[in-house]
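Protocol step 4 of 5: obtain the predicted structure for the target chain.
Materials: sequence only (see below). No template structures provided, no constraints applied. The aim of this step is simply to have a reference model before the mutagenesis design in step 5. Sequence pasted as it appears in the construct record:
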Amino acid sequence: PLRKGARADSYDAGAGFPSLFLELRMLRGLYAGVMRLSGARHAQWALAGIALAESAFFPIPPDVLLIPMVLAKPERAWRYAAICAGCSVVGGVGGYAIGYGLAPVAHWLLDFFGLAGAETALRADFHKWGVGVILIQGLLPVPYKLLTIASGLAHFTLWKFVAASTVTRSARFFGVAGLVKRFGPTIVPVIEQRIWLVAAIVAAVLVAVIVGLKLLH
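Step 4 output (structure tokens):
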């Protein structure tokens, strides 16, 4: 366990959390390099940069830095969460711009990450559920870049995209930071093992609310 004030990179908080990415052997070295940044002098800048880039093209999620940084300095949990959320939304606008104005590049990125054709299903969901798709997908531990690029490809309304992304990414990162701040290292295995379950429950509630609102209208 990491004691308060200990080096952030002495605890492998992401050992199980980003399993989706670690299944790809080629990303192990990159993941290890990101983990080392959590104990660097300018870790906050690294956190901001990774949150920004991950929304459009970078394969490692900012949680890999966020968790050990909050463990090391829990009094800065909300600052770190705000950095993640804010930069993730700004980066998301970048991903949206790629999809909106650079379709060939957007398709190449999706193909590179093994997501070719995934935007087709999202287009149909956009037409059916609107902003609810962003609220739900933004919470789930799936590549956020798929959502940002696909939103641009589908020419989804920009202000709605930004508003929904702000809500869902804030909920994601403030939720993780709050749990780690409150419970410390003991909560990390729970986050790692139950992230899909928790996200699925929240997503199910959102679906129920959205369906209910549509039925009322």
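Step 4 remarks: Residues 20 and 142 are 8 Å apart (CA to CA). The two ends are 51 Å apart (CA to CA).
Proceed to step 5.
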